[in-house]
Write a structure and sequence with these properties.
The chain contains 24 helices and 36 strands. By secondary structure, the chain is α/β, with parallel strands linked by helices. β15 and β16 form a beta hairpin. α3 packs parallel to α6. It is globular and about 85 Å long. It starts with a helix and ends with a helix.
Length: 840
């Protein structure tokens, strides 16, 4: 057989293989942008391409959402790179100093570009663009992209938030007509509560990168940290009247961001501008979107050695398939998708052109961390004090999720004490955590642990303080000395005995204690809590300690302690056996100072008027952390609610219409007097404070007009500075030290202080009667973050956490959000105290 005859079938096979590949329009049966693509069809197209071009594309399912939609990544490159995928990954970790072997890394490796689409579910255009991007990369006719892929591996997450996307798409498809209506007042541009932005539990996944509280984040970040790309892009949408935004980012840049990372953002921006200029498209840079808060899809990659960027296209939930803008144009879904498609290819192009430099600078970033060139502090020591074991364990979990190295140590040192704000000597004991800043993840360590982040510009897009010792409530020292990590940290393996005893005691010390108690109550096991500290068998137990006795639990017979020990083992809490109800010091178990804990029937108001993120935090907390039943009731169904079936009502941040109606407000107050218990947070506290029956009253700003009286021209501000002129009276997420009354049930399990995240200007007068001032701020109690100078004098000598006694019921007022984004770990116990203890 001639050579031509041999080659012809092979050529025919290749042509047939290419012929099987369909463009998005061919596969879907419609043009991108002419209708919304549901998530299952989006995934189907990616699978089609992977099946048609297996040598160029590999698909990986890395998890699934709460609503069981699959989460996928697509790896796209040349045949040589795809066949060598695992070696590329391993080598990339070696470049970062995180390889498990001791082999030397190869800098002549492909640069890795990771594109994350549709993190906010109702910002839909980027997922549509992802299909266009994928096709361009594998299209046999596109020689340009093939050239880029020779030294570039592209990773595409086509939809970070499938649950939110489908919530929006399914709603939109149910209300749009045969043709879309571009009028902004048409119903298709007004999505109902809670909207499609967030995930199933109404969490913003773009603010969860470092904390990884949500299942989507946990699964995605596990893979992300196995790859650590050199470039990462997070795709978004903003208001319909705003043009496209791309890098470079706005100030403030965190000081840990390298000059290379800053400069390369500008390089990428210039490449995007070239294409946008060719089309006459509008765009802006260096405004609004900064690089500071560490848990974004741009900042987290930056703090992990990448060029991390946010791209923002006008549109969002109001965009629909087409919407009229203020300029009289119609912004279509097709326009939005094409803009994201353009920056996608432009990003890959510029990365390919600079692949060698990206890899070299990536390696340098991590080498500098190991060499101790990042930050002033070289070691962080977290004390494992008695009572802090559960908080220490929670911190370990966060460190593990972020691949931050830590261990044990010994000896003495000197460093900044986060609690006192002073440099002090300290000793390292067994059980303390030692975190060296001389490690590959040095930048993440600096950003997460530094006592006070430096702000070069106070106009920020998010909170300005998040230092983990305050978040977790742990005694910590930041030392400028290099302290050796003696060895790996030994995690305690807990296995409780279920031996027969008079009773068992659980110390009330953190979320594990609360979860164990919740599980015991859910199973019908009767428990008690101690109002006062006591001592028995040489052991000391604090307020809130949970006591489980045979008495009252007779129905469980010999199986009681097996059930209790199983719950405690699963929750990771220690049970202390007792042989008598008589204590050595304090009050005996039969005293009136020891109270039974009734398993509360808990409900939460939700729906229109309630902050969806705030409601989601509570919902997630009960279902995924406490594993305790909660009923969600629409706030507008107040008059149809069966109040006899509610013991505890949670009111998240919101504006409640029923409180504006006198008859409903009084009916609500009567329910409390009859034994109802309320847990109110943030603006729910503000609204309750305006009720005639409330003992909470917003503190008046006595100095409101002082400046104007002293200087009659003080009010003459310039239009140009309109954004900054509001800063002196703002606090975009700062940390305050709160002095607390830990003898009150709301504060069981805490020392005499608590660190709160202040997101607003609300401070309340001290309660004069019928209540308790359980958490107050006094003078000079700000510890971290930005607070405007006008506000500093107001945020003092006031109440943030209080309890009102009303008849047989009570109201817990939590003016700050103790469950903020579910990462503010130290506030969770206070919330549990309000649910299980207050008013019992």
């Amino acid at each position: 057989m001639s050579r031509k005859m041999i080659l012809f079938p092979l050529l025919l096979l290749v042509i047939c293989s290419f012929a099987q590949l369909k463009s998005p329009e061919e596969f879907l049966g419609y043009k991108i942008g002419s209708r919304y693509t549901p998530h299952w069809k989006l995934v189907s197209y990616f699978q089609h391409v992977a099946q048609s071009m297996p040598s160029l594309v590999k698909m990986q399912q890395y998890g699934e959402t709460n609503e069981h939609r699959p989460l996928y990544l697509a790896f796209i490159s040349t045949e040589e790179n795809i066949s060598n995928l695992e070696n590329i990954r391993i080598n990339n970790l070696r470049l970062a100093g995180l390889g498990k072997d001791k082999a030397a890394p190869n800098e002549n490796s492909p640069t890795i570009v990771w594109l994350s689409y549709n993190v906010h579910g109702n910002e839909t255009s980027s997922s549509e663009a992802s299909m266009l991007t994928l096709f361009s990369l594998v299209d046999p006719k596109n020689a340009q992209t093939k050239n880029w892929l020779r030294n570039t591996l592209v990773i595409i997450d086509p939809c970070v938030n499938p649950d939110g996307r489908d919530r929006y798409v399914n709603w939109f498809n149910s209300v749009v007509g045969t043709s879309y209506n571009p009028r902004l007042d048409a119903r298709e541009h007004r999505e109902p509560w809670p909207g499609g932005r967030t995930n199933h539990y109404n969490f913003d996944l773009n603010r969860d990168w470092a904390w990884q509280t949500q299942t989507e984040s946990k699964q995605r970040m596990a893979v992300y940290n196995q790859w650590l790309p050199q470039v990462h892009v997070d795709y978004h949408e903003q208001g319909i009247n705003q043009p496209y935004y791309f890098a470079p980012a706005a100030q403030p840049y965190h000081e840990a961001i390298t000059q290379w990372q800053r400069d390369f953002q500008a390089t990428i921006g210039r490449n995007h501008a070239k294409y946008f200029d060719q089309h006459g498209w509008l765009y802006f840079t260096k405004e609004i979107f900064d690089l500071f808060y560490p848990s974004y899809g741009d900042t987290y990659p930056v703090y992990n050695g990448a060029i991390g960027m946010t791209y923002e296209q006008g549109g969002g939930g109001a965009g629909g398939l087409g919407v009229d803008t203020d300029e009289g144009d119609t912004l279509t879904l097709y326009d939005r998708a094409i803009h994201h498609y353009t920056t996608s290819l432009s990003t890959i192009e510029i990365a390919s052109q600079n692949a060698s430099a990206l890899v070299k600078e990536f390696r340098k970033f991590f080498n500098n961390g190991v060499a101790g060139l990042v930050g002033d502090y070289k070691t962080y020591v977290i004390k494992n004090n008695p009572g802090d074991a559960e908080r220490v364990k929670a911190l370990q979990e966060l460190l593990d999720k972020n691949d931050i190295q830590y261990g044990s140590g010994s000896g003495n040192g000197r460093g900044y004490n986060y609690h006192t704000g002073k440099d002090e000597f300290f000793s390292i004991s067994s059980g303390d955590i030692v975190i060296s800043a001389l490690q590959p993840k040095a930048t993440m360590v600096k950003v997460l642990f530094e006592p006070q982040s430096k702000l070069v510009d106070s106009v920020t897009y998010d909170i300005t303080a998040w230092s983990l010792p305050y978040v977790y409530g742990l005694t910590t020292y930041a030392s400028k000395e290099k302290i050796n990590v003696a060895g790996p940290y030994k995690k305690e393996e807990l296995q409780n005995s279920n031996a027969d005893a008079y009773g068992y005691i659980i110390r009330w010390q953190g979320m594990s204690s609360a979860k164990a108690t919740a599980q015991l109550l859910k199973q019908g096991i009767k428990v008690r809590f101690a109002e006062m500290p006591f001592e028995i068998n040489g052991q000391q137990f604090g307020r809130g300690s949970i006591i489980i006795l045979k008495k009252g639990n007779d129905k469980w017979g010999a199986g009681l302690w097996t059930m209790v020990s199983k719950v405690c083992n699963e929750s990771g809490v220690k049970m202390s056996p007792v042989t008598s109800g008589m204590v050595d010091k304090g009050f005996d178990f039969g005293s009136s100072k020891v109270h039974p804990v009734k398993a509360p029937k808990v409900a939460m108001l939700t729906g229109e008027g309630v902050g969806s993120n705030a409601a989601g935090e509570v919902w997630f907390f009960f279902e995924q952390q406490l594993d305790y039943p909660i009923t969600l009731i629409n706030a507008n169904d107040f008059n149809r609610t069966d109040w006899n079936k509610i013991d505890v009502l949670i009111m998240p941040d919101g504006n409640y219409r029923f409180l504006n109606e006198k008859s409903s407000s009084e009916q609500f107050a009567q329910w409390i007097r009859n034994g109802g218990r309320v847990v109110a947070l943030e603006n729910a506290v503000l609204q309750l404070s305006k009720q005639d029956w409330s003992v909470m009253h917003l503190k008046k700003d006595d100095d409101k007009d002082t400046a104007a009286k002293k200087d009659p021209y003080k009010l003459l501000t310039t239009f140009e500075n309109r954004e900054r002129d509001g800063l002196p009276a703002s606090t975009p997420g700062s940390i305050y030290k709160v002095e607390i009354d830990n003898t009150h049930p709301l504060m069981y399990g805490y020392p005499n202080y608590y660190h709160t995240l202040k997101m607003d200007t609300n401070v309340y007068d001290f309660i004069k009667e019928n209540g308790w001032n359980t958490g107050v701020i006094k003078k000079t109690n700000q510890v971290a973050g930005f607070v405007g100078y006008k506000l500093k004098d107001k945020l003092k000598d006031g109440l943030l956490f209080g309890v009102q006694d009303m008849g047989r019921g009570a109201v817990s007022y939590l003016a700050d959000n103790v469950l903020f984004r579910n990462f503010w770990e130290n506030g969770k116990l206070m919330f549990c105290n309000a649910v299980f203890f207050v008013g019992q």
